[in-house]
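Below is a filled-in request sheet from our internal design queue. Each sheet records the structural input a requester submitted and the sequence that came back. We keep these sheets so that new team members can see what a complete request looks like end to end.

REQUESTER: design group, bay 2
PRIORITY: normal
MODE: inverse folding
CHAIN LENGTH: 87
BACKBONE (tokenized):
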């Protein structure tokens, strides 16, 4: 086991080797990013362009969904306000 000094104290580090070949200390996100980079490098320019368009479309759809949700909340608050005004 490796030892590291932290704030003047020795701390033992466990070897986090994963059976899938994951490097010590590498998180799942980093592993997925590496896989995506390998996949990206194998794509043609037309395929990359199509995927980029879809990623932009996904962001637009997400933002539109957020706007719809906020509009619904505003409508609900207006309904509550009119109901309270009637009381």
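RETURNED SEQUENCE:
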């Amino acid at each position: 086991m490796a030892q590291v000094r932290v704030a003047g104290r020795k701390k033992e580090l466990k070897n986090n080797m994963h059976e899938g070949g994951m490097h010590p200390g590498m998180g799942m996100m980093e592993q997925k990013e590496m896989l995506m980079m390998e996949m990206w490098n194998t794509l043609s320019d037309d395929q990359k362009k199509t995927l980029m368009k879809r990623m932009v479309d996904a962001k637009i759809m997400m933002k539109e969904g957020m706007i719809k949700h906020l509009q619904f909340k505003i409508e609900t608050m207006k309904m509550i306000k009119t109901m309270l005004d009637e009381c």
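SHEET NOTES:
- The mean pLDDT is 81.
- Residues 46-87 form one domain.
FILED BY: M.R.
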